[in-house]
Amino acid sequence: MLNKVINYSNFFSDQQLYEGELTDFFKIFELLYFDIKNNNQKLYFIYLPEYARYSNNKNNDIRDKFRIQIENFITKNFPNVEYIDIHNEIFSKIQNNLKLFSRPGRNYGGHYSAEGYKLISEFIIGKINETP
Questions:
Q1: Which of 12, 16, 42 has its CA nearest to residue 28?
Q2: Residue 72 CB-half CA count within 13 A
C-alpha cells in the first residue's frame, strides 16, 4: 500500500520551477527512493497537472520541459519506480478537461472535481493492481 506521497511543488517556489532549478528535487527524490527501497516498498511517482495548464496555455512549454526532465530523471535512474503521468494518461484525452477541476473559470484551480478525482484514483488503483 502507499505509505508516502511526495509533491515536488511543495519544495520549490514557482520562480525556481520556471527557472529550471530541479537539482534540489533530484536530491530529495534520491533520498526518498533509497528510504523506500531500504524498506522494501514500491514507489509510484504521479504527475498531477495543474489548473493553469488547461485554463490558459501560458507556460505550458515550460511545464512540459520540467515534466519531461523529471520523467527522464526517474525512468533512466530508477527503472523500478512507476512513473504515472496523469496529464498524458487522462487529461490530454478529454476534450473539456477543465470539467475535471472544481469551479472552473473562478480561479479555484487547485482542486479537482469529483469526476477528476474519480478518474485519477481509478487510474492509479488500476496501475497499482497491474504491478507484480
A1: 12
A2: 7
> Which cell numbers in the block locate residue 71?
520523467
Query: Can you read off the three cell numbers belonging to residue 68?
Result: 519531461
DSSP bridge pairs for 47: 85
Please check whether residue 70 lies inside any domain of the structure.
Answer: yes
Range of the domain at 99: 8-130
Tens of each residue's pLDDT in the chain, 132 residues: 444 555 545 554 454 444 557 888 888 899 989 988 888 888 999 999 888 788 777 778 888 888 898 999 999 999 899 999 999 999 999 998 888 988 655 655 578 999 999 999 999 999 999 876
Residue 44 — φ and ψ, nearest 5°? -115, 125
CA–CA separation, 78 and 57 (whole Å): 31
